[in-house]
Structures are given as C-alpha cells and as structure tokens.
Amino acid sequence: MPAEQVIDELRALRTGDLPTHGGRTLAYVYDSGREGLDDLAARAHALASSANGLDPTAFPSLLRMENEIVAAAAALLGGGPSAVGSVTSGGTESCMLAVHAARAARPDVERPKVVLASTAHAAFHKAAHYFGIEAVTVPVDPASFRADPAAMTAAIDDRTVLVVVSAPSYAHGVIDPVPEVAAQAAARGVRCHVDACIGGWVLPYFRALGEPVPDFDLSVPGVTSLSVDLHKYAYCPKGTSVLLHADASLRRSQFFASAAWPGYTMLNSTMQSTRSGGPLAAAWAVLNHLGDEGYRSLAAQALSAVQALRSGIAGIDGLRIQGEPQSTLLSVTADDDGFDVFTVADEMTERGWYLQPQFGFESSPANLHLTVTAANHGGEAGLLADLASAVAAARRSGPVTLPAELTAAIAGLDPAALTAEQFAGLLAMAGLEGSGTPKRMAEINAMLGVASPVLRERLLVEFLGVLYTAS
Ligand SMILES: Cc1ncc(COP(=O)(O)O)c(C=O)c1O
C-alpha cells in the first residue's frame, strides 16, 4: 500500500475510537489542551524511536535523558540527594518493579507477602500474581476510603516485604495517610511504596497553588519508593512512568543481569530489555517544554475544573460524590434507587462523553469515575448540563433489571470450571451474540455486577479471548 493510503486507513480506523482530546473522555487519556504539544512529542519520538535503551553505553542520549527525567521527578517529589530511579513503560510496570525489588531484596523470606490498602491499584495484584507473592488486602475506612493505619500495621508480619499506599487512589481520588503507614512499616523494617502514579505530577502543583495536600512523597520518613506516571498528569505520550527509590541500595534488587547464555550479558534496569527511545525522548521534550511554570498553570486549570465539577455534581438531584476527593479524580454514585449509574454512563456516551463504570466494592457502591484534566477547564458547564439530562433520562428508564433466568445462570457458574460454551450461552441469554462491542453497556455491567469478583474476572478474561481473535 502506498504510504499515504496506509495513513488514510489508520486515520479512518482511529475515528471509531474515543476522542483523546477535548476533555470528553474522562478516563484513559490526559489532555493538556496545549496547542503544539502533541506535535513536539511526535517529533521527539521520531528522533529517538529506533535507539535502544537496552545498552545505555551505546545510546548515551537515552541515558542522559533518563537521568534528567529521574532528577526532575525526584526534585518534584521530595527525593533527597540520594534518590535514584528508572523510567519504565507505565504505571503497572513501575508498581510491579517496586514489588519485585522489595521481594528480591529479601531472599530470606519464604512465601513473601505485600500488604495493600484495599483501594491499591490492581497493578499490585498483577505483581503478586506474576511473582508468586501473597497479596494481603486491608479494608480501607468505609466512609473516607482512606487506608486504615492501625489495620495496615496489624497486617504486617515476618513475611511482609512491602506495604503499599496510594496518593491518590484511582477509584476515589483520596490520599492515604502515608506518614502513619510509612512510620509503622519502617518500625518493622519493611519497605513502603507510595503509588503516586496518577497524582504525583499534579499534587505538588496543587500544593504550590495553596491546596491543603497532605504529606505523601519521598520526604516522608519510611517511604522507600514512589511511582509517578509521565503519561498521566505530566501530559506525555503513552509509555512512560518513573519509579523512584529513596536511595541506590533500595534500587539494586530491581536490576537484572544474566550472563547465563552465549550472547551479550543481558543487563536490564526495568522489565523491558530492548526499550525504544521514543517514549523517553517524547517525555523529555514535553517536560522541558512545559517546565515548572507550564505544569503549574495546567494544574490550576485542572483544579478549577475539578472544583467546578465537584460542586456542580453535588447539586444534581440524585448524584453524590464519594468521600472527600483531594486531587483530580471524582467518584460519582446514585443517591437514590430510582435509576442506575451505569445507565447514566450510557446516556453520557450518547451525549458524546465517556465516564467509566466502577463496580460496587466493599463500602463503595456502583459508581462512575471521572479523571479530570486541564482540558476540562472551560467545558464544565456543558458536562454538568449533559450529566443532569443523563440522570433525568436514566430515571425515565428506571433501574436495570436482569431476567431472573440470567441472574440464576450467573449464580450457578463456577469460575474455576467455566467453559467457552457456558460463556457463549451467557452471551446469548444477554442478547450479546455477534462481534463488536455493544453501544449500551448498562445491562452488561449489571450482569457483571451480580457476578462475584472472581467470576467477573473469569468472564472478562473469556471476553478478552473473543475480542483478540486474529483477523
Ligand atoms: C494509582 C495508579 N496506579 C497504577 C496505575 C497503572 O498505570 P498504567 O495504566 O499506566 O499501567 C494507575 C492507572 O490509572 C493508577 O491510577
């Protein structure tokens, strides 16, 4: 195919995606709204995408950019002169590496455990799963959704290699009591990781703007590592995060070397081996271009948007914000049972917005997640007007009710023994045969909502297999 035709085809394919710019997609994407930023990042990416971070001595430009990025992150997030770090491919890799480093530093511990506040990102469950570690989840305070330091402390034992808290948590946007938890972990000689993947590049600027941001970063005694994603509130293209450690001795066990084969001695700082210089260079370009001043003004825009949305949503009859969010994330639930929040999500989709459904979990009922970015500034009134009309429409449809036979079929499924045929039968019962994702999701979400979390995981993995079918 001629090059132009390939690009046209790609452009056509992309029209079916959620919009990544303009503030209408309130999850997955982070839009600065700054003219020219994408272009700068794309040019930087193109200049370095063929360079390979596998060998930093062969590509010293990548080494230099990575060291500069880590220094900037450490300076922003309370790292002292001994702080060190690595640039990874994203938040999940940073979180997994923090778990790996903590476990690898304790070869004396058999059957290691990580203690997680129950609101910790699923990346930590993935780490536990991949590395054969036990994840101990500790319920958070049922009203504030913040970690409970006493309960976290009680969960630490001789097998604990890491304690994890968030700043903020993805689901509710609240900041865990980092100083209390970190102090208790330190008293027991256990590492403490702060997952600031989503908040790390915006909370320091909120503080500079006068917001009361509680202490959460590497300057807090006992915090041994911290993750912050550049592809979130640093508004860099997808594919970069930073994992910081308080000092080099804590990072050593993160690294991997193998001379146990006849080729080059493999020496990796992160999970990847060959590492494109593209995302790194793009991030370096964006960070240098925006600078402290740029981030401060983008944070001011995001702050003003999240404040306007928070008070506007509280004023919509039937909606309620969960907890006391302290960053850029909102969790919105229904205040009465006259409608279903997942129907509100569908109604918003019809109005050109994407709000992310979150299932009920512990004391948190089914709700909608909003990741608010600088690009939402100026569009708050439009979003609120559409949200009010979406709630009114959801009320007119009434709550979703599932056919009794479907609920019974779900209740009768054994996640451990689910077959492809049972899954196909379930899809048929729900009227979901055929390819493609359905436009309205409320019924599917209701169905997934009545399934136990373990069954939900199993059903969705089955669904993934159906989606990823080579064509
Ligand atoms: C708090 C937190 N940790 C980790 C992650 C995982 O990041 P990624 O999706 O970049 O792997 C996220 C993503 O939203 C997050 O919010």
Automatic annotation (TrEMBL):
The keyword rRNA-binding does not apply. Its cofactor is pyridoxal 5'-phosphate. Keywords: Lyase, Pyridoxal phosphate. Belongs to the group II decarboxylase family. Sphingosine-1-phosphate lyase subfamily. This is Pyridoxal phosphate-dependent decarboxylase family protein.
